């Protein structure tokens, strides 16, 4: 599956206080070995780097992404771009199957609106345990060889939501 060259690097604006959002962004960070994704936690105190045409209620309502070409993407569209950016092409193809695309596109706003109702232990079990293990295996297998890791993979592995590595490099140009 070919990536849209105008999409990357893609800057994701996410709610780090949300267990589901935070877990999914951590998984993407672990898979971000090519450095095509940037992460901005909008729940950090003092956050004010709003993408053009957005405000805090809009950002809190749905995941937003600013593409390299400056276009804004939201919801399941930006998730597909993020998944493509970390080579989860099979997942993207699955969510684009006839009927399933409609389902995912319509289910995303409902899940986003009620994301704080999901019990934290369930979110951790699914996102921070099972998926993280898979992401760590993938990141470790592709980023490190012969006891050496590339600089891009070290940055991706050390990045955490709200950390200093996010703020400076995440602001769109």
Give the DSSP E fraction (strand runs of 2 or more residues): 5-15%
Number of domains: 1
Spatial order of strands in the largest sheet: 2-1-3-4
The quaternary state of the protein chains shown equals single chain
Shape: globular
What is the overall pLDDT average? 82
- Tell me the radius of gyration: 16 Å
Q: Count of DSSP helices?
A: 8
Number of strands: 6
Query: What string, H for helix and E for strand, traces the elements in order?
Result: EHEHEEHHHHEEHH
The amount of helix comes to 40-55%
Blueprint (SSEs and pairs):
Blueprint: E1 10-14, H1 19-31, E2 37-41, H2 56-61, E3 64-66, E4 72-74, H3 75-85, H4 89-95, H5 100-113, H6 120-143, E5 144-145, E6 148-149, H7 151-158, H8 164-170
Parallel strand pairs: 1-2
Antiparallel strand pairs: 1-3, 3-4, 5-6
Task: Describe the fold and architecture.
This protein has 173 residues and is of the alpha+beta class. It has one domain (10-170). It contains eight helices and six strands, in the order βαβαββααααββαα. It has helices spanning 19-31, 56-61, 75-85, 89-95, 100-113, 120-143, 151-158, 164-170; strands at residues 10-14, 37-41, 64-66, 72-74, 144-145, 148-149. The chain has a four-stranded mixed β-sheet. It has a two-stranded antiparallel ribbon with strand order 5-6. Helix 1 (19-31) links the parallel strand 1 (10-14) and strand 2. The longest helix is centred in the C-terminal third of the chain and has 24 residues, at 120-143.
């Amino acid at each position: 599956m070919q990536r849209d060259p105008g999409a990357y690097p893609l800057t994701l604006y996410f709610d780090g206080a949300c267990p589901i959002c935070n877990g999914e962004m951590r998984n993407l960070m672990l898979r971000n070995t090519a450095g095509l994704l940037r992460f901005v936690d909008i729940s950090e105190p003092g956050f004010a780097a709003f993408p053009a045409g957005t405000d805090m209620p809009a950002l809190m309502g749905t995941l937003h992404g600013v593409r390299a070409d400056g276009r804004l993407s939201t919801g399941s569209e930006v998730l597909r771009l993020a998944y493509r950016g970390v080579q989860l092409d099979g997942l993207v193809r699955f969510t684009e199957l006839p009927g399933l695309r409609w389902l995912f596109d319509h289910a995303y706003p409902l899940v986003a609106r009620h994301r704080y109702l999901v019990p934290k232990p369930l979110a951790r079990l699914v996102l921070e345990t099972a998926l993280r293990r898979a992401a760590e295996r993938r990141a470790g297998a592709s980023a490190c060889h012969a006891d050496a890791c590339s600089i891009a993979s070290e940055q991706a592995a050390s990045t955490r939501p709200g950390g200093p590595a996010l703020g400076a490099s995440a602001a769109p140009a």
